[in-house]
Design brief:
The chain is mainly alpha-helical and 138 residues long. The protein has helices at residues 15-25, 50-62, 64-72, 76-102, 106-111, 113-136; strands spanning 4-6, 12-14, 26-29, 32-35.
Length: 138
């Protein structure tokens, strides 16, 4: 067992395996060995929108462990895009549902634009607050 190297964590390997690990995981800069940490290239086809950014802010401030896990596993961008898409669709669905319930029609829009705009803004705020509680801060 002359070739075995025992590490502090109790893991042992022979010198050849250790050398291969060093070559793959570390760069040599002078007397120092620096970890060669790189992330795989990600092709982001979609921008992160309003709800994705809100989720990012929430994760950074309130769910630091989940944020770190998603970031280190290279899943953060995918998660944020998924949340953004889901939240956007949910807001649109809620607005349509509430429009029917409140009887906000195109006729109201033609007859009294200011009342229609006020009611639609109110519905949008309500829908966004519901989605914020359901998806963003969950």
């Amino acid at each position: 067992m002359k070739n075995n190297i025992v590490y502090d964590m109790g893991v042992s390997t022979n010198n050849r395996e250790r050398s291969d690990l060093d070559d793959n995981l570390q760069k040599h800069k002078g007397d120092y060995q620096i970890p060669d940490l790189t992330l795989p290239e990600m092709k982001q086809t979609q921008e992160i929108g309003k709800y994705g950014l809100m989720r990012l802010d929430y994760l950074k401030k309130n769910k630091k462990t989940l944020y770190s896990t998603l970031l280190m596993s290279n899943q953060l961008t995918k998660h944020l895009i998924e949340i953004d898409n889901t939240a956007t669709m949910r807001v649109q669905q809620l607005i349509e549902k509430m429009k029917k319930k409140e009887n906000i029609t195109e006729k109201l829009k033609q007859d009294n634009q200011m009342e229609w705009v006020g009611k639609m803004n109110n519905l949008k705020l309500i829908a966004e607050e519901l989605v914020k509680q359901e998806l963003i801060m969950n």
